[in-house]
Specification:
Length: 323
């Protein structure tokens, strides 16, 4: 998936911020007017003692939607509207409400209350933004890690629940074991083991060791979907939460059949070479750079009068008597 150019992304982000700011200011302008109309409509029921009762919710809505600036704008407009239409004495008792002998003081208290509401909502906005940024970072890290794990093909990396049932499956696991995620997720991981290992309880033993010691590591035969066997290096790691409760296991498997075959070939070659050299009467030996014997044949053992185990790893000085 291609990425959007940074300049285009920043332009769209700036445009969205501008639109959001305009929209929040529009809300801050409209809600005091709506509060005033409702106040006049409900005046017979609310009486004259609560001129600001509907303006506080208006300020709270503006501050919640647009933040501190929107809340302050709504506070100023609400104070102006309340002063002009509700508090300032006029010639008609039907169009104004006389609250007390000190309307300016009550207006000041209302203004301070609006500022406090706006400040509290701004704090909530900032906390919400921090939480969202943290969640976005965690989500990005999770997707990056999941993409990394899924892209690895040399290793089968997957998760097991506490009972050994497969929960996740990466591309490497599909490549090595032959199962797709739909085929294997929810199945017990013992199906990767030869029948003799399953009957002996080896899979359960591995989980038990990993649970007690935190980790289990071994090399052994595993079985693919098609029934073929491969020599695998496996590591099972117990996963625990902050309280130490077991949440499952992480299992990493690598196909090392080729390496094992190479090692077996070298071992057989060494055995053949050893057999050839042991059947010659000539003394043959190999020393390292420090003068220590790393290989001797049977003729050398007979000439020295010592066994191979006594010679290997020693120098001539260590094998010779002081005389």
């Amino acid at each position: 998936m291609g990425k959007m150019p940074t300049s285009h992304y920043e332009a769209e982000r700036s445009l969205f911020s501008f639109w959001r700011s305009c929209h929040s200011y529009a809300v801050a302008i409209c809600v005091p007017v709506v509060a005033l109309l409702l106040r006049h409509w409900l005046a017979p029921r609310l009486g004259i003692s609560t001129p600001y009762i509907l303006f506080f919710p208006a300020i709270a809505v503006s501050a919640f939607y647009g933040g501190l600036r929107s809340g302050l704008l709504a506070t100023i407009l609400s104070a102006a509207v309340a002063w002009h239409f509700l508090l300032m004495p006029s010639g008609s008792a039907q169009t104004s409400i006389t609250v007390s002998s000190t309307p300016l003081f009550s207006l000041l208290i209302f203004f301070l209350g609006g500022v406090l509401i706006s400040a509290l909502n701004e704090s909530l906005h900032r906390a919400h933004r921090r939480v969202m940024q943290h969640m976005q970072q965690l989500q990005k890290s999770y997707y990056n890690f999941a993409f990394l794990v899924d892209s690895v093909q040399d290793y089968a990396i997957f998760m097991l629940d506490v009972n050994g049932y497969v929960e996740t499956w990466n591309q490497g696991a599909q490549y090595i074991n032959g199962y797709t995620a739909d085929e294997i997720v929810g199945q017990h991981f013992s199906r990767f083991y030869p029948l003799e290992d399953v009957e002996s309880g080896k899979p359960e033993m591995e989980l038990t060791v990993a649970t007690k010691e935190g980790r289990f590591k071994e090399e052994g035969w595993r079985v693919r979907k098609d029934g073929s066997r491969f020599w695998a290096s496996t590591v099972i790691t117990a996963m625990r939460d902050e309280e130490g409760k077991l949440r499952g296991f992480a299992k990493v498997t690598r196909d090392i059949t080729e390496r094992r075959e190479t090692q077996e070939t070298l071992r057989r070659t060494e055995q053949q070479l050893q057999a050839v050299l042991d059947n010659t009467s000539v003394s043959v030996y190999i020393k390292d750079c420090e003068g220590r014997y790393v290989f001797v044949n049977r003729g050398f053992e007979q000439a020295y009068g010592r066994s191979r185990s006594e010679i290997l790893g020693r120098t001539d000085g260590e094998l010779s008597t002081p005389e």
